[in-house]
Amino acid sequence: MSVKPLEDRVLVKPIESEAKTASGIFLPEASKEKPVRGEVIAVGPGKRLENGKRADMSVRKGDTVVYGKYAGTEVEIKGAKHLILRESELLGVVEG
């Protein structure tokens, strides 16, 4: 099964945070923050403009993005959690 986002939506696979701190302390599952970073898996064709053309998307497949803690809609694809977000819900692209 594959999902192709529509309009200006983006399919993102969340990147889980580390279970261990920099000093070597292991964190319990309950204390972990909800992920706010993820990898773009698929991108829609872009929002349709008034003139009938589509706006270019600013992210591409493979980009690592930052999004709001409670943004998007959670979906399960092949047993893995993913998010479908609008491009406007993305806060930035991680570079480097």
Characterization of this structure:
This protein is mostly beta strands. 0% of the residues lie in helices and 35% in strands. It has a 6-stranded antiparallel β-sheet with strand order 4-5-1-2-3-6, with no helix packed on it. The mean pLDDT is 85.
Which of globular, elongated, flat, extended, rod-shaped describes the shape?
Answer: elongated
**Biggest beta sheet attributes:** 6 strands, antiparallel
Beta content: 35-45%
Distance between the termini: 31 Å
Helix content range: under 10%
Number of strands: 6
Order of helices and strands: EEEEEE
Strand order of the largest sheet: 4-5-1-2-3-6
Number of distinct helices? 0
Question: Low-confidence parts, pLDDT < 50 over ≥5 residues?
Answer: none
The quaternary state of the protein chains shown equals: single chain
Overall mean confidence score, pLDDT: 85
Q: What is the CA-atom radius of gyration, in angstroms?
A: 15 Å
Helix-and-strand structural type: mainly beta
Comma- or semicolon-separated keywords:
mainly beta
Helices and strands in order:
Layout: E1 9-14, E2 37-43, E3 64-67, E4 73-77, E5 80-86, E6 90-94
Antiparallel strand pairs: 1-2, 1-5, 2-3, 3-6, 4-5
